Amino acid sequence: xxxxxxxxxxxxxxxxxxxxxxxxxxxxxxxxxxxxxxxxxxxxxxxxxxxxxxxxxxxxxxxxxxxxxxxxxxxxxxxxxxxxxxxxxxxxxxxxxxxxxxxxxxxxxxxxxxxxxxxxxxxxxxxxxxxxxxxxxxxxxxxxxxxxxxxxxxxxxxxxxxxxxxxxxxxxxxxxxxxxxxxxxxxxxxxxxxxxxxxxxxxxxxxxxxxxxxxxxxxxxxxxxxxxxxxxxxxxxxxxxxxxxxxxxxxxxxxxxxxxxxxxxxxxxxxxxxxxxxxxxxxxxxxxxxxxxxxxxxxxxxxxxxxxxxxxxxxxxxxxxxxxxxxxxxxxxxxxxxxxxxxxxxxxxxxxxxxxxxxxxxxxxxxxxxxxxxxxxxxxxxxxxxxxxxxxxxxxxxxxxxxx
Length: 404
Ligand code: SF4
Description:
Layout: E1 21-26, E2 28-29, E3 41-42, H1 48-65, E4 72-79, H2 87-101, E5 103-113, H3 120-128, E6 133-139, H4 143-148, H5 157-167, E7 173-179, H6 186-198, E8 203-208, H7 216-222, H8 231-247, E9 251-254, E10 257-259, H9 266-272, E11 277-280, E12 285-288, E13 291-295, H10 299-307, E14 321-326, H11 329-340, E15 348-349, H12 350-357, H13 361-374, E16 378-380, E17 385-388, H14 396-400
Bound molecules: iron/sulfur cluster.
The site of iron/sulfur cluster has 11 residues, from loops.
C-alpha cells in the first residue's frame, strides 16, 4: 500500500522545481549471475511489452504531478539488463521522458549492457534513440572467474562489444570490473585491468565483490565450497589499480570510479551530490520532494498497480510506490556528507552546504569532523571543501558512520 506523502519541514527546501535526474529500472535478465542481489528476474521476457507500457504510464503520471520542470539532466537505464529491451522500446521511453519532463539538450543518457548481448544494428538504433553513454558489465578477463559468476560471455566479447559501440558512435564507454574474488590472485586481477585498459574505455568502475545473502555465491561461501577472499589482498588490488589508472590518465573521482577528463558519470555525480532524482520501474529508488521512496519489486505487481492508477499522486509518488521515508533536515545533512565525501576531488563544498541548510558542516558536525581530521581521514582544502584523504579510501565506512 502507498503511504500518502506527508511533507516534512525540510521538503520546503527541495521543491519540484529543482533539476532532476531520472533512473529507469529494467528488471529482466536472460540468466542470473551467482553474485547478483539486484532486483532482476530471468524467464520473464514475455512481460517486457506490458512492462514498457507501464513504465511510460508511470513516467507520464509522475510528470503530470510535477509542476514546471527545467531540463532533466540525465536518464540512467539500469537493471537487470536494459539490453533485454527491444530497441524501439528504449526510444519510446526516452521520448516519454522528454514529453513528461523536458530533457536538457545535453542530457546524458546511460544504458547498461552485457558483453556480447548487442550487435551493430542494436547499438546504431540506441544512438538514434538518444543514448549517449554505455556501461558494459565486463567483470573479469579470466575465464574461471566468469564461470564462477555464471556470466554468459567470454573475455573476447568485451573488445568486440567495445568495437561495435565505437563504430556506432558512442563516445563515452564504461567497463565494470570486480576484484576480491574467491581464488583471485593479484596477477589475475592485473590481467583483468590491463585487458580492460587495452579496450581504451573512458570510464572504469571497480567493485569489491560482496557476498549478498540469498545469492549462490553466499551459499557456497557458507558451505566452504569457495574460499573467503583475503581482505588485505583485496586492499592491495585496489591500491594497485588506483596507481595504475592514475598513471594511465584516469581521474579517480569517486571511491570506486575512474574517468578520463570529461567522462565522469553525470547521473551518479548528481546522486552523490545528494540532489533529487526520480526512480521508475519495479524496485526503483528515488529521492525528491524531501522523501526517499522505493517502488514495489515484483514486475507483475508493478504493472498491475500502475495500470490501476488513473490520476497523478502527490509528487514524486506513483501507485507503484511501496515505501516512503521522509528525510528530515538532520538526516539530509548527514546524507550530503556521506554521499559527498565519496566524490574524492570535489568532496563537500562548505559554502554550498551552508547555502542549502543554513549552517556550515562544522556547525552541524563539528566534533565528528575534528575527530576525523585528527585521525588523518579527512582534509579541508583552501577553498572550503571537505574531502577524504587517500588513506581513508579503503576505510570510508569508518568515516561515514561518524555522521549517522
Ligand atoms: S546480468 Fe547483471 S543484473 Fe543480471 S543477474 Fe547478472 S549481475 Fe545481475
